[in-house]
Amino acid sequence: MDKNVSIALKIFGFVLIIIGTFIPLYEVAFNSDPILGLPGSEELLESEGLIFQLFGARLDVQQLIFIGIDTEGNTINAVQSIFRPTEMASAVVLLSAALWFLIVFAILFAILGQVFQSGGFRERGIFSDITAAILLLGALIVSVIAMNNGFNIISEDYQMRVDGNEAFSLGPITFNPNEATPAYFELTFIGKFAPGFYVYIIGIMMVVTSLFLPIDWEKPTSSTKLRGLGETKVFQKIKNILTMRLSVYITRRLLTLIPLFIAICVMTYVMVNGMGDPVALILLGKPRATEQDKINITRDLGLDQPVYARFVLWFYKLLHFNMGNSYRSERPINEMIGELIWETLKLQLTSFFFALIIAIPLGIWAAKNQNTWIDSFSSTIALLGLSMPIFVFGLILIFIFSGLGLGWLPAAKAHRVPTPVVITGEGFNIWWVTFTDRFLDSILHMILPTIALTFTFLALYTRLVRSTMLEVLRQDYILSARANGLSERTITWKHAFRNVLIPIVTYIGLFLAFALAGAPITETLFTWPGLGYRYVLAIFNLDFPMILGVTAVLTILILIGNLITDIVYVAVDPRIEL
Amino acid sequence: MIKLQRLETTRVTFTVKLDKYMYEHRLPKSMIWAGFLVICAYYINDGFTAIKRLFGAKETIIIAKDGTLRERSPSQWSLVWKRYSKNKVAILSGVLVSITVLLAIFYPILMPFGPVGTEPLFDAWNGGGSTTRPNMKYPAGTDILGRDEFSRLLAGSEVSLTVGIFSSILSLLIGVTLGALAGYYRGWTEEVIMRITDMFLALPFLVIAILAVSFIQRGTLEFLRQIPQSVVIIIVLGVFGWAGLCRLVAANTKQIYNLDYVNAARVLGASNKRIIMSHILPNIMAPIIVLGTLAIAGGILSEAGLTFLGLGSPTTVSWGQMVNEAQTELKLNPELALLPGFAIFFVVLAFNLLGDALRDALDPRLRE
pTM here? Predict the structure, then answer.
């Protein structure tokens, strides 16, 4: 069979799957009739609406509104109930998250299979294709299970509440605002397939079919039009990129990153949950806390659920960029981390910049004058920086330059507290004066921590530059450059320096990991309002969402940093084999 | 008689001190650790004969096949020792490290006071009390709670060195084993081990270490809370710090895997275990030793950092914790914070120097 059939099927199939993930696959509607014979039931109206919609990639929970009429004849929303994700059965959430992953993995595997087959690795391509097909079929099964599961759980739950079997109401669900029982409505649930489901199934079927068609990948297509299309520049370029070993490498790395991230998240989640009882710590500040308070807070924080259910909920929320609210300040973690990471990066990147500026010339100078006083000077600085604990160096700086000693620089915080309001002049002038004031203030606060951090980074980079430079200078091409009579300056900067840059450039990604993970100590010493300091505070306050959020964000940053490092390393240095 | 008496008195005071610290459960710990290490080394090296063989460059005479007399070429380790002993900095660092190690083992003999308790008689009128300046009785002053700073400085060396050395050994054990397996057996073994290594490399080290220490020390699991503080830090640093080493060992093992002498051993019918143990591992020993030494320095720094953040237990004497406690007194008594800080600095410096010297001795390409 011709290969354009398979490619077309694959492309259309994936387009359909992606469209299908944005259209509801399945929805549960309700229809309510007022139960006649109860006092006041004549004033209630029939109502109908949606309870939940399952998408390919997410779960939408709708508001339930019953409409009634009060004694004066006005229509009011007598009964309201809102499903929040915390109230959803964890099984549904788990399945929905699984669906998401299966689809992502399937797409990656299918691309990998295509790349392999175009590159001539037939067996590997078939392996990837089969994996993609299994994943897609798994996604189909999971979505069907999720539908039935969600429907059953929700209808049972509701029936219990309607019957008044539940002793207390969990959420804001009350069918009568004045009394929890008796029920005024008779609810019927209608589950039905939404159009998305058919789109989704057709997409999956198309992709799976395309994967198993008997196709000779090495034979060019018989269609002259398509062959002409394939020979255009754009398609040639796409093909070149796809069949590059680098892109195969990147896809493989991406495939390994996702389970890696899940494993790290599971590990941290288990550790965080064994850290203690945050409810007791929250109640510590309240006078006359009762047992009921404890139960209420435990339920509000969702701590009455089993660990695995909590993990799934947390992870599902994380995928949708929602990390919950802090136990302490009750603000969203997203907002908090967004503010804090800027302060941390400001400090780290500035000191990294200064460290590079000093380290590169110093290292090269030391390598050029090996075994002289210059070399020993730079080695000494590097050794001191490596051996000096950053908190001791910082303490010395604070002791000398802050209010304890000379009183030149502030020793704590990133800004003046409280922030001064400067009002002199109008328009641009106000803005300019305030801006320069705050800017100078910020810079003054940054000086001491930046010096302390720069000293540490300097050590690492000076050593790296020196050793690489020594290695490069011993190469044959430097000798031949010298033999050709090039000046020492040209040799150093044009021939040697460019090769020294390879490890430095690649270390930038790894640096990010190192710097962000090392932030807690520096920031605690200078009480810098950054990620690290707040992380340590969160550890002592048992602020679970904050701890989890910071670890997850740092892990993601490090994984991306590592990936970029590897890619840049391969891209910069053609000698590396994949 | 008088001499004898003197001897007697010194002996008595020594044993009294020893008894005192045995009673306080402070002496045996470091000695048990040291003894454990010595016994391990003894069994590994078959009664130190290997050590003697390593450093004694004996000129043995070999009779070659054609009947001529030849001198046996010096072994690799004796060459290393020659290079090492020529380097003045190396000798200095070796002396510094051995002094600190001896100090960490025998410090109770030098301590004038107990490191954890206070002496009730030495109040402010008698030169004691809280935050006194250094005087004859208290060579480095006393801290906020009136404990002798000098004794605490000495006692802190024990925790620092045990944590540094044993966390390094733990990570060496895990890293070298997994790395050698991954490099030798290839295929699925390598894939699995390398993915686990990737996971540990992707962890933000200090952040996870803080989390793990507080999980073990003040978590909800009762049996984990029983573990003493230094052991907790050893475990955490060892378990989370082996990944880089594992990668290095795997890469080196892969390089050596196809060399002629390994192939020769394989043809002769050597088992996999024998090839790994006696052909591959001794030949990648140099980077492992260097990294292990540097890992000790890193371990000491990490321990100091963790205890500085306030994760130490109050009954364990640790330099980082001393700095943390003395931060509030920085203006009036800077020596309380700076002395333990410089103690960390010098010990780490000694180990870093030792690592560099070993690198120079083992890999002479870098300094010619």
Answer: 0.76
